[in-house]
Design goal:
Hepatocyte Growth Factor, Apple domain-containing protein
């Protein structure tokens, strides 16, 4: 429909603090018990090889990491890695689907880090 904006729960660019229309969608969703992590898809085994825009240490949960990404104000956060063993959260401006060959690897090895986008 012309003039309508439909926000996707799974694409951070469409629902972000940088998109005023999306703030009411996010607020409404949280009012229904939706968690920050509900806005992301996990990519187990995928490791991003390029540095992130921000590193948050002492992050105690993946939900907190998702919240940091959703509420980032310096750049549009399109994904993050949470490493539970080191309690680190790396925020990325590139969505995992926009990465080029060589900017990520897919591993079958079990890891304590998971990428979300």
């Amino acid at each position: 429909m012309a003039g309508c904006h439909f926000a996707s729960l799974h694409h951070p660019a469409s629902i972000s603090p940088h998109n005023p229309t999306s703030l009411s969608v996010l607020s409404s969703a949280r009012g229904r018990g939706v968690k920050y992590l509900d806005f992301y898809v996990a990519y187990p085994g995928r490791v991003v090889m390029i540095p992130g825009e921000d590193l948050r240490e002492k992050t105690t949960s993946v939900e907190d990491c998702a919240k940091f990404c959703r509420e980032e104000k310096k750049f549009i956060c399109r994904g993050f890695e949470y490493c539970r063993s080191t309690k680190t959260c790396v925020l990325h401006s590139k969505h995992v689907m926009d990465l080029k060959q060589g900017e990520f690897i897919d591993s079958k090895k079990k890891s304590t880090c998971t990428h979300y986008a």
